[in-house]
Each structure stands twice: as C-alpha cells, then as structure tokens.
C-alpha cells in the first residue's frame, strides 16, 4: 500500500506543479482521494 501511495504522489507532481492556486491543488488532492476510495 505504501508503494502505491508513493508512486501516486510522484505521478501527481507534474499535475500539482501545473496548478496556479491553492484552490486548484485542493481540488486535485480531493479528486485523487475520491478515486482511491472508489477502488
């Protein structure tokens, strides 16, 4: 499980760096959390 989280965070770095606002980052993190909960 730890490995999956680490890989996911590394994969998200480009997406998070593309966000210009704190609100955008929050939405991205929320969508990832929802995706993980769905599995």
From TrEMBL:
Pfam families named in the record: Entericidin (PF08085)
Keywords: Cell membrane, Lipoprotein, Membrane, Palmitate, Signal
PROSITE patterns attached to this UniProt entry: PROKAR_LIPOPROTEIN
Record family assignment: Belongs to the EcnA/EcnB lipoprotein family.
Name listed for the protein in its UniProt record: Entericidin A/B family lipoprotein
Organism: Asticcacaulis aquaticus
């Amino acid at each position: 499980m730890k490995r999956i989280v680490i890989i996911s965070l590394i994969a998200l770095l480009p997406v998070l760096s593309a966000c210009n606002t704190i609100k955008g980052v929050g939405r991205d993190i929320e969508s990832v959390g929802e995706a993980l909960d769905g599995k």
